[in-house]
Amino acid sequence: MKKSFTLGSAILCASLCGCASQPQKVERMQPNAAQVAQKRGAFELDCPAATAEVLSKEMMLSAANPRYMAPERAEYTVGVSGCGMRATYLVVCTVGGTGCVAGGTQNVIHRVPT
Question: Is the pLDDT of residue 41 over 90?
């Protein structure tokens, strides 16, 4: 009984401690997410001068499962504009991972009215 209580307390403490730093994790990965979207946008728009702006950001938390814990990940919606065009990208970064990915296989590119 005492052993299971100690284990449960440790899991609860780890969960609560991790939640306290979620906003810092999202902020820390934001520059990398913007850079990934900017590079993809510059390529797709054929515009090396394209710029990126983070439109929204959110930490995606997985349901707690004692047997399998999916990695935490942050999702960003990033707008890229340049050369009279603009596009949006969903960028996913895994906490503790090696980088971010601009998801999706097809992006709708809008011409900005002049």
Answer: yes
